[in-house]
Target: ABC-type Fe3+-hydroxamate transport system, periplasmic component
Amino acid sequence: MRPAASALPCALSLLLAGAPAFALDCPEGQRPFTDVRGEICIPADPQRIVSLHDMTVTLPLLELGAPVVGSMGRIDAAGNRYMRSVDLVLGLDFESAGLGYIGAWEEFDYEAVAALAPDLIIGSRWDADYAERMGRIAPVVLVPDDPADAMSLARGVADAGGVLDRFEAEMARYEANLARVRAALPEAQGMTYAEVQADGGTLYVFTNFGASTKVLRDLGLVPNALTAELLAQGVADYAELTAEVLPRLEADVVLDSFTLAYGDSMQSPRERMAEVIPGWCDLLPACSEDRYVVLPRELTGISFRELDMMLVAISTNLARILHRPSAPSVPLE
Model:
């Protein structure tokens, strides 16, 4: 048993426990914000935001109407600049969105960033290596994310960008639609899922695949045993595994993805899996029994339009699986 503390330290600890924490003292026009490095000061009402990532920062900010002036982007085989998923989900490119191009990820053009005169630069934990140099141009916020909450990054981006109220309104709308789907598919509760992808001869198992994972969990599905183990080990995004784990991929539904932007066909994911495990579909019941679902990778981000599309796509496939004549009456063990 722990020794009893004296009365004075005990009273002091109670007093401190009830006292508010001291907030960071920010200059006028700024406010405290907790990013991956700790508490920092950012503009209270940013007007010229530069984004360090197209899918995870630019897309949700544009969707919510934040004042973005520049973004990281990509260059296709024809030499055209584009923002991945922003083009497919919102129908916008740099010109139509009125954004400046600041280079590709890991190849940022710092002069282009400075020329946009941003008052805030928003990134995530993946951008930590660039924060110091970017910080010489404008305040940089590296928004934290929580592996247990697929929308934590989007919520933090919206908060930093000054559009948290719009985020909360969209979340309420999504949750209302989710409740309707859950009521229509009560059998989905407790079904198991796995999210996989093969690429370049490597097998990946995902613990967090953005909108896809969120919708699955929101509908009441639970990770299969392998995914649950990876989560317990602290795997935040994905693990690279070997062909020997194939039997452990089995779940009531196994999801894979193809890309709309790089010339995939619906068969491409199956072909990539076969490069890792020849004959895999015959060996995995989820595939041979038509419980293997392929969805567009560009729609697995964290915007509300992607959530809406994923909710429709996943619920439709679950209904097909659950209501087919040969469907099991209970979820697989």
